[in-house]
Amino acid sequence: MEKNSQPQDINVEKLLRHWLGAMKFRFTVAISGTASDFASFDADYGVRTPIEIVRHISQLLQTCCSTIAGSPRVRLESKGWYEEAARFYEIVEQLDQAILQFIPEQSVVENLVQGPLADATSHIGQLTLLRRLAGSPVAYINYSQATI
Question: CA nearest 60: which of 100, 10, 94, 104?
Fold first, then answer.
């Protein structure tokens, strides 16, 4: 496939919102059907537990919200498994709204993509791996065919 000779403008808002939708979908797949004891699954070797990972993901996304809106960063307190999952969805919604309200500069978008957004996406993959190690693997899914 040849590269198009015309440069394409990237709609940053659309791309970031799609990324959030994909993360939300993957997160839902990763935690659906898990029992509350999965939250404390210990894979050993210093690996974070699922509940610690979910809190960290939410913290990363909260940092994105603060960065985009120019507001102070908030340190998230620990919650229970179901509350942590609910908080993830709330913060995704807050971040989506921040993206709609504030147009970040290109350098800010690049930093968010290469930093907290990529990190959060990786951690969602860790949840999927931990499910397999805990004996409750996620069924096969073609993520590229998912409706986002």
Answer: 94
Q: Cα(27)–Cα(146) distance, rounded to whole angstroms?
A: 13
pLDDT in 10s for each residue of the chain, 148 residues: 566 666 677 788 899 999 999 999 999 999 999 988 999 999 999 999 999 999 999 999 999 999 999 999 999 999 999 999 999 999 999 999 999 998 788 889 999 999 999 999 999 999 999 999 999 999 888 888 888 8
Structure tokens at 74: 């908030």
Handedness of CA 57, 63, 65, 67 (dihedral sign): negative
